Amino acid sequence: MINHEVRTHKSAEDFPIEEHLAYKIAQVAADSVAVPQDTAEMIINRIIDNAAVAVASVARRPVTSARVMAQAHPVSEGGANVVGIDGTYSAEWAALANGTAVRELDFHDTFLAAEYSHPGDNIPPILAVAQHKGLSGQDLIRGVATGYEIQVNLVKGICLHEWKIDHVAHLGPSVAAGLGTMLDLDVDTIYQAIGQALHTTTATRQSRKGLISSWKAYAPSFAGKMAIEAADRAMRGEGAPAPIWEGEDGFIAWMLHSPDRTYTVPLPGPGEEKRAILETYTKEHSAEYQSQAPIDLARRMKKTLADAGRPTSEIESIVLHTSHHTHYVIGTGANDPQKMDPDASRETLDHSIMYIFAVALEDGGWHHVKSYSPERAHHPETIELWHKISTVEDPEWTRRYHSQDPAEKAFGARAVITFRDGTVIEDEMAVADAHPLGARPFGREQYIEKFRTLAEGIVAPEEQDRFLAAAQNLENLQDLRELNVRVTEENLASAPHTPKGVF
């Protein structure tokens, strides 16, 4: 890997295009190095993972709205599939629909470093273009490997949330780069597409603050749609603002810290394999990633309390000692009263570690639908316990969160439960059970099990078998439409009616 220093340059400076970060990313994307086998196998896992969470959300309102929008843009030649249904639709609208379906339940993969990300968001737009262009499984693998590589390394190098910029600002460029690899575009074209993609996908973090709406699911799918359009324009010879990151009025100078900040972004050198996907991890539970280990911790502590004969009704307080991110984004450090409100949206509860820990401690687990239901959130005992939970930042957990050592990097917490009689029971967990270093790391078997669990009653058994066979044969697959999963008519019929929009 080569570490590239990235800073603002005045317009009058001599700053050749070859030094622009967008150009260096484009060079990585245009490098035709072969994809290693373990990267290819993990891409298959993540395609299965995305399909699992997408079919589970098909009948939900935000996903239904996105699907209906895509259906308003059918095409007679080329086109891409929309999860759940037959037919071919305009690739960018299919990417919006499928990306929203993947993101709706907050249940697919993650990578956390200086910034946060869900790198599986690269797959829907890259797959949609691959289907539209009639490309092969090998082409898709190359494109997705680049998408993950670029997003992961931008996440390592440039913190966005510090300046309240949403993490999709790293997704637009990574999708554009992945499309460039897959379509065998030249460096100059990819450079322009990356610049346009960043320029059009920069947004604030208000989408994840306060009362969180369905836009949380749309934000990454919109970024993917914009990246497709950026690539299309660049292929026609249209240019982008430049230098997009380093310009005097550019991204770093005005969206991030200031013209004075220098960032260090690692990127593969010429001929270096793209392996970043292997550093990412998926979710066993449908919730913000920082709640994965606390859910497993709560599950374990439920048994501890039962063995000690201590009911939750006797609890005086629960304090979760955790990282800066967990405390300030999904904990009480956010100072969001909505995170303590039983009438809050599903998206808001998904970002409340207080609610999540309370339910997981009472239930001994987590369910992607039942745990978020209004009935569950309004249990009087749950509300009482929920409001006894707080978070504090622990410098050691923050240090481990940012550690570059995979064996030390942690996203967990230490839970201190104090009872009314003064008794204290505490426990901690560094990584989720499903994490590569966890108690039950996810492999192909677990990805398939997750798909079958979420598809049960939604996708016919024979359709499940067909999709899984196609996905696992991705390296030899010639028709990428085989990766679309159809749901049952009964499931589609259960989707809510959406009002008429523009289309």
TrEMBL record:
Signal peptide: none annotated. SUPFAM superfamilies: 2-methylcitrate dehydratase PrpD. It catalyses: (2S,3S)-2-methylcitrate = 2-methyl-cis-aconitate + H2O. It comes from the Bacteria. GO terms for molecular function: 2-methylcitrate dehydratase activity. Residues 19-260 form the MmgE/PrpD N-terminal domain. InterPro entries: 2-Methylcitrate_Dehydratase, MmgE/PrpD_sf, MmgE/PrpD_sf_1, MmgE/PrpD_sf_2, MmgE_PrpD, MmgE_PrpD_C, MmgE_PrpD_N. Its EC number is 4.2.1.79. The keyword Heme does not apply. Keywords: Lyase. Residues 285-475 form the MmgE/PrpD C-terminal domain. It is an enzyme of class 4 (lyase). Belongs to the PrpD family. Monomer. This is 2-methylcitrate dehydratase. The lineage of its organism: Bacteria, Bacillati, Actinomycetota, Actinomycetes, Mycobacteriales.
